[in-house]
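User: My instructor asked us to take a sequence, write out its structure as tokens, and then describe one feature of it. I'm not sure where to start. Here is the sequence I was given:
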Amino acid sequence: MDNYKLYANLIRKPDSSDFNARPCVVEKWIPLSHWSFEQIKQDPLHDLEAVKAYRDIMFCDNETNHCIMLLDDFGSDGILVESEGYDYPRYSCFVPNARTLYEDSLTTNAERELRGLIRKAADKALEDVFADNEADIHYADLIDEDEVTRLVKTAIVERLNQHISEARCLASWIPEQPDLDIKTEPLKTIKFFCPLKIEQIPDEEDDWEEYSDEPVDLPSYCALPAVGDINLAIEEYASPCEENRGIMAYLGDREMLGKVYSIFPSVERIDDDIYGVFTCQLYDDLDSYELEALRSELSGQASDGWGEGFEQREIETDDCGKLYVSFYGAPGWAMKTGEEMGIPDIEDDQGLDDGDISMY
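Assistant: Let's start with the prediction itself. The structure tokens for your sequence are:
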């Protein structure tokens, strides 16, 4: 077994008081970028948006501290915080390998039972080997395969129930019946809007004394007739893996986007102008901190991620010639929700279809 590595602040010649600890309940696990996490370690008394957003759930009750845990999304460590109503980590401590605690908090009962079966099977194999010095071992002699199958299905259901409304195992002895029944709540929808920077390649037939094929700025409202062509170009730019979840297909490791199912970019006409749009489908409502995390991610996608690639594609349109469309860089650029734009709320989607999943 490899040696276990962690980072800790060891106390020289500690006394008993150094080992006193109070019960702490982690009310919220909050992933932070590695840069932000390191900044907190350098300046732990600085005001933090994460602390401000969740200060109402941090308090002391009957000798128990109710806290938030800030997680390094690049590493494994964390910082436990109880702000006592302030916007900075008034009480805090460094927690090595806090991600292990986080993952353990998500581990289901069936997963724990499955790990127990694996340990018992390994112990039995060792007993057989040491008894005979060597042994040819059959997997079926070590572990109950039916029990493994039952626990795997149960673990999947328990994991699903952490995210959706209802999942359950169905009786396996009924012929032709699926193994799992999964019902979902409708997905919620939120849209973010941003102004577009549009450039047009001059038409060679234009009666200019000196023709140049360098793109020139085109006011976004002048591209209104090209909305359909731009959206078609966005669809053609998408990879096959984006069919169901859009650009979330590439963002599954963003822990702060855990409530986001899909993100699809497009353009829409609003009043007499054209805007870039990111339509986001959500498993659940976002709190203020999660909303800002999503806004920040979409701003990055508009400027450096998805948008950086799309803005380099020449778009052939019927009414506006050849265009380049950027979701970033327009004067007064901002990423705003529909509510902030004064656009009526969007009704919840029908969501993921209710239905059964079969496992064989």
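For the description part of your assignment, you could build on this observation: The chain has three domains: 16-105, 107-162, 188-353. Try explaining in your own words what that tells you about the chain.
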